[in-house]
Amino acid sequence: MLPAAFRPYSRTFVLLLCVAASFGVARSLQQTQPAMTLPGATPLSVRLQEIAASGKLSVLRWPSFSDHRTDFLQLYQASNFSPLWLTASGHLTPQALAVIQALESSRQKGLIPEDYDAARWQGRLAALSTTADPTIQANFEAALTVCTLRYISDLHIGRLNPKHFNFDIEIQNKKYNLPQFVTQDVIHAANVQAILNNVEPPYAGYRRTEVALQRYLQLAAKGDGPLLPEAGKTVAPGDTYPGTAQLTQRLELLGDLSQTASVSADSHLYTEALVDGVKLFQDRHGLVVDGKLGKQTIRQLNVPLLFRVQQLDDALERWRWLPPSFPQPPIVVNVPEFVLRVFSADHKVALRMNVVVGKAVRHQTPVFAKDMQYIVFRPYWNVPRSIVRSEIIPAIVKNRNYIAKKNFEVVTYSGTVVTSGSINDNVLAQLRAAKLTVRQKPGPDNALGLVKFLFPNEHSVYLHGTPAQQLFSQSRRDFSHGCIRVQQPTELAAYLLRDQPPWTPEKVRAAMETGPNNQQVDLKVPIPVLILYITAVVEEDGSVHFFNDIYGHDKSLKALLAKGPPYPG
Question: Residue 488: is its pLDDT beyond 60?
Fold first, then answer.
């Protein structure tokens, strides 16, 4: 019953409530349903409208397609909710069969077949061939459309947005208009597979990784074979090792043992032929290439092949995040590999060198893409505030001459030198209060070496030289505070300035050794720089190299993919 105050107006009030409720329901229906049932609609088209309205389809392995609901709706609105994959007589189009074949082969692309119902299509085809039930037909039609949308998007830009991992790589501008792409390029295609092949990244490295994946899938299907036994001590060439039979089998399986190598099946001697195979294996797995069977080498030899398959899957996913082209050949740093490559206009590696990257704990080098704009010869090192606070100030407290000893200067933020000698209490107090900062003078002992390469970014990360050349001989090289130290800075600078007279290699070397301090040289054309994270790399010669997941990014990727679609955008 209405309150007494409203009773004189009860009929009007109830009418208003009904109108308001109806308006609310109408708005709700408008938001969740594509449209009113079309005049003359068939049961099949009505069912497609219902599926589009809900954004769910129970017959799918992953029923919710909320991320592609708008694409689905636009596709069927354009066809008045008529089937895309079924003829008027209820038969499948040739394009539908070709798409299904691609979905069933999705494992060969480094994808998860369950995401596209790969194991369910044959049963659905059998059911479709024995009935004209419009509900079964509509469910089949909708399932094929959803899986096609997922497959094309996943192949083109990857399943997960790199932003989800705080990777500063943009994929939004390379997204397809999926309804338009399916309508114009797929459902009437003379060669569906050719269309789908063009969806993938155009890079030779991506194609090589796909080929390597096929090989490792085949190897994994054969089984890992017996594990190598642990050794009590490092096994050197000429030593005895009880696992030589297992070692021989594993090296032969992976292709690291020469087919012409002569190894006795009954001997436990660690012979030169096995040593050569182990060296090749070590080189491919980011280990010190010494030919010795230490704990790390045996551990890597015992890694299951399905784990290597997963690494190749992850590599393909990250390849798909890259832009389809670059305005200039890029510089690419692969963090877990500790390697920098400069690519030429024909996509070949023009320059390759080792690098040192950020420490795994607290100082990880970020993943991002920017353009290199200038080079600075004989740079100052402006010490980051975090390092001043955590390292420089405590060192000054212990030794007031620390600044002079390390060739530092205390400066204002505008660059005015306050002192390069002993630190008094007043200066120390201003450093603690962040009113002053610290920089290191240019020279061969400067932490940045004799040159730095700048591609302005919010992470304050750049490439630079280093006086600590001994670190490049380490197999694992995560030692920095986040910036990237390059092993051959002179060669890199000379290559980047090769088309800018008068910057000959000799001129570059002179600028680094005897030139003016903090000399900036702008690049005539900015160079794209990609800081990437890929733990499986296939070289131009086809050799497959694997690296440790030092930052845990592969682990995070695997955990999210295990949840199934729709994946975080």
Answer: yes
Q: Could you tell me if 69 and 87 lie in one domain?
A: yes
The domain boundary, picked from 203, 238, 259, lies at 203
pLDDT, tens digit, for every residue of 178-236?
A: 999 999 999 999 999 999 999 999 999 999 999 999 999 999 999 999 999 998 899 99
- CA distances in angstroms from 481 to 366, 372, 387, 461, listed in the order given: 11, 20, 9, 9
Q: Which two tokens stand for residue 341?
A: 């490559």
The answer to whether position 250 is within a domain reads yes
3-state class (DSSP) for residue 417: strand
**286 shares a domain with 243:** yes
Structurally, the chain folds into a number of domains equal to 4
Same domain, 357 and 488: yes
CB atoms within 10 A of CB 106: 21
d(CA 447, CA 374) in angstroms, rounded, equals 19
pTM: 0.89
Mean pLDDT over 428-441 rounds to: 96
Does residue 330 sit in the same domain as residue 470?
A: yes
Q: What is the DSSP letter of 113?
A: G
Q: Containing domain of residue 467, as a range?
A: 326-377+449-511+518-534
Q: DSSP letters along 311-356, please? A: HHHHHHHHHTTS-S--SSPPEEEEGGGTEEEEE-TTS-EEEEEEEE
**Contact call for residues 289 and 254 (beta carbons, < 8 A):** no
Distances (CA, A) of 217 to 79, 305, 468: 40, 8, 41
Q: How much is the CA Rg of the chain, to the nearest whole Å?
A: 31
pLDDT of residue 258: 83
- What's the pLDDT at 569? 74
In sequence order, what are the residues at sequence separation of 6 or more whose Cβ sits closer than 8 angstroms to the Cβ of residue 255? none
In a domain? residue 346: yes
> Are residues 44 and 130 both part of a single domain?
yes
